[in-house]
Design goal:
This protein has 310 residues and is an alpha/beta fold. The chain contains twelve helices and twelve strands. Strands 8-7-6-9-10-11-12 form a seven-stranded parallel sheet, sandwiched between helices. Strands 2-1-3-4-5 form a five-stranded parallel sheet. The mean pLDDT is 97.
């Protein structure tokens, strides 16, 4: 019998689908590395989300592992090179969470631009800060999209047709469909940063994207600009961003991801009124989690059927 270790919380519909297809499921939520090293033995498949981290040590401890499946987008918590060396397939379900992440990015834009979180904090503290809460409209502004894949394209469409924003984008791969649909202009990263009123990041974390947005890049942005990051924390140099927000290089930021997660208590970002922080909830909607659980289960089942093990 095919045995799959589910090491992260996925939607119950995904678990049910695995079991109904004849898969024996072991469920242990986010075990630490030492525990995962022992648990992985005897399992043919492993399903995770952004945690736990599937290290080389875990992969080398696996004696029957054929596939690692990430319910969601990105594989930065999986040692893909170690998996490939062992002939282990790595699957993802990026299509499951794109709408939820895109909608959160737009929500963060509004929260920062209209000082919603700031106003809420002050109201709860009994302060009426109307004269300090003047914001800016999104309507008619320039949106800069860094990474025009699935999520970046949805954000561009929402902002173009919902707020009549002009769209600039940078991506190593040009997106003619997005240009045709929204009138988006393809340009350089530097031009996006210099021109956009809102810059939103939608790139995977790779060696070439780590600290893609650093002190030099932040200084290119308008003093009135807002930076949104719902991709991966390390794409932005946190120390540089804190400096930019404190010294007014940019007007504000909306962040869902961080170089260190959870964000430690007392972190400098938590002391700033011009940043809105959410705890990596881009994919945390009922709809996205249901889709992610079912899609990754379908992909795992399809993999084992192709191998004629189911």
């Amino acid at each position: 019998m095919v045995k799959v270790l589910v090491a992260s919380r996925i939607h119950e519909d995904g678990i049910k689908l695995l079991k109904s297809s004849g898969v024996e499921v072991t469920y242990v939520e986010e075990p630490p590395e030492n525990e995962l090293v022992d648990l992985i033995k005897g399992h043919h498949g492993l399903i995770v989300r952004s945690k736990p981290v599937v290290t080389r040590r875990v992969i080398e401890a696996a004696d029957q592992l054929l596939v690692i499946a990430r319910a969601g987008v990105g594989v930065d918590n999986i040692d893909v090179e170690a998996a490939r060396e062992r002939g282990i397939e790595v699957l993802t379900s990026p299509e499951a969470t794109v709408t939820s992440v895109a909608e959160l990015a737009v929500g963060l834009m509004l929260a920062v631009a209209r000082k919603i979180a700031f106003s809420d904090r002050k109201m709860r503290a009994g302060e009426w800060v109307k004269k300090y809460a003047e914001g800016t409209e999104l309507s008619g502004k320039v949106l800069g999209v860094i990474g025009a894949g699935r999520i970046g394209s949805i954000v561009a469409r929402i902002c173009r047709f919902g707020f009549n924003m002009q769209v600039l984008y940078y991506d190593p791969i040009r997106n003619p469909k997005l240009e045709e649909e929204t009138g988006a202009k393809y340009t350089t990263l530097e031009e996006v940063l210099k021109t956009a009123d809102i810059v939103t990041i939608h790139v995977p974390l790779m060696p070439e994207t780590k600290h893609l947005i650093n002190e030099e890049k932040l200084k290119l942005m308008k003093k009135t600009a807002i930076l949104i990051n719902t991709s991966r924390g390390a794409v932005v140099d946190t120390n540089a961003l804190v400096k930019a927000l404190r010294e007014g290089w940019i007007a504000g930021a909306g962040l869902d991801v961080y170089e260190e997660e959870p964000l430690p208590p007392g972190h400098p970002l938590t002391t700033l009124d011009n940043v809105v922080l959410t705890p990596h909830i881009g994919a945390s909607t009922h709809e996205a989690q249901a889709r992610a659980g079912v899609l990754i289960a379908e992909k795992v089942i399809g993999f084992f059927k192709q191998k004629k093990l189911l």
